[in-house]
Amino acid sequence: MSRAFSVLLDLDGTLTDPKPGITESVRHALRRLNETRGLSLAIPSQDELEWTIGPPLIDSFRLIAGREHGEAGVAFYRERYADVGLFENRVYDGIPAALTALRAQGFRLFVATSKPRVFAERIVAHFGLARFFDRVHGSGLDGTNIHKPELLRHILAVEAIDPARAVMIGDRKHDAIGAKANHVAALGVAWGYGSRAELTDAGVATILETPDELPAAVARCAGG
């Protein structure tokens, strides 16, 4: 098992701001559900759909449209997201500099997202972030590892990471819950889509205000 300290970073709401692409693709999916299944679902605004950024999409669509329409909702979402929505996105200011500093400190960096890995890899490459990461980890299109506890368990095993030598960084409670389930430390970030109360209640050790705080916070977790 590697003794190098490993940093697991969420993608949506942590490395990039994906709001336009995710929320507009959710709106597209709801319209398609209405058209094809005779439903009368309301079509919320992008702002009203911010809560869908972070949790597994299947869970969100089951809440919005009912359990029986969850898988169809995800399929309709991907109609738009796979070609258009994933690039309606931007890297948060300060993230490239923070990743550069983390690499300079010798940390292993991994993306850990519930988003399908095939989409996450394209986003990371498109925005010039691939050079910072040892590997991008995400879920399968079939839903494998879609929840953070299972995803982190998979990453720890595949990458031979000692949980005591790792930290999970993200903007939603799901990141902290996944970390806790695998005995990994968790840091929250305030620039994403989770509230401070959500992150605190989920047990993050610290909430960072800006990306430039990342290198020092990780160094503290690593004992440096």
Shape label? globular
- By DSSP (H or I, 4+ residues per run), the number of helices equals 9
CATH architecture label of the largest domain: 3-Layer(aba) Sandwich
Q: CATH homologous superfamily name of the largest domain?
A: HAD superfamily/HAD-like
CATH topology of the largest domain: Rossmann fold
Give the rounded overall mean pLDDT. 96
Count of discrete structural domains: 2
3D structure, described in words:
With 224 residues, the chain is α/β, with parallel strands linked by helices. It folds into two domains: 145 residues, Rossmann fold; 69 residues, DNA polymerase, domain 1, CATH 1.10.150. Helices cover 43% and strands 16% of the residues. The chain has nine helices and eight strands. The strands form two sheets. It has a six-stranded parallel beta sheet, with helices on both faces. Strands 2-3 form a two-stranded antiparallel ribbon. Helix 6 packs across helix 7. It is globular. It starts with 5 loop residues before the first strand and ends with a helix.
